[in-house]
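User: Predict the structure for this protein chain, please.
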Amino acid sequence: MFDIQGAASAVVLGWSAKDTTPSLATAPGPLELLPTKHYPPGWLKATTPKGAPAMPPLPVSDPYSEIYSKTTDDCWWGMVDPKLIDPANHMADSLFAYRRSLRLAHSFHEKLDLSAHPHTYGYFGVDEDKHRTFCSVNWEASKPLTSGMSEHIENRKANWSSPLGMVQIPEDSAHKVCFSLSNKRDQGGDGTVPMASGAVLAKLSVKPKVVFKISGFDHQMSYKNMYAYQATIYGVAQLVQLAKPAQP
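Assistant: Here is the predicted structure, written as structure tokens:
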């Protein structure tokens, strides 16, 4: 209710899974923005009220097979609800369309890998205060789990779910537990890109010439930040010097 930045994003992207799934699930472009295998592992989590792990964090190594290929028909935390992909029923096989788009995004990630042009200049946000960012996806349990409930909970299926990020998982015929998506931004960044993503630049096979770490700016309005603006001008100036002189 009080997340102004989240509300502004929802106006464009949609307020719930019902709004976002039809437009994002079968479009390779948005799926290309998913974390690649180079993003720090273990970013999908489920925790108890005291913060203890409710299931092993994922991915271990491959987000495509461990997370993105999973639907809500496979497990309660599945990446996509197949029923929401094509609400108008215009597709012969909507799940196939999703998986095809995911393969295209995966192929793009593999080709991009950790490569960069040798004359690369850039910057990313490291604001730990005002512009904190989602580094992980965390499902929070409504109550402590019993030993029977915690066993293989990652493979259980929900008996009820909400498009706003809540699922109910049966423990037995009489007991149930709810998991809700956390709205806590858990890392510094620029409000959109977490520091963990920007830090991947240091792992590139060809190191960028200069990468600035800057705090105090919002992702969308970064060019209103004096230091981000100056970093951009610096990079452009360095690249212009490499250009061959114009011939008369």
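The mean pLDDT is 90.
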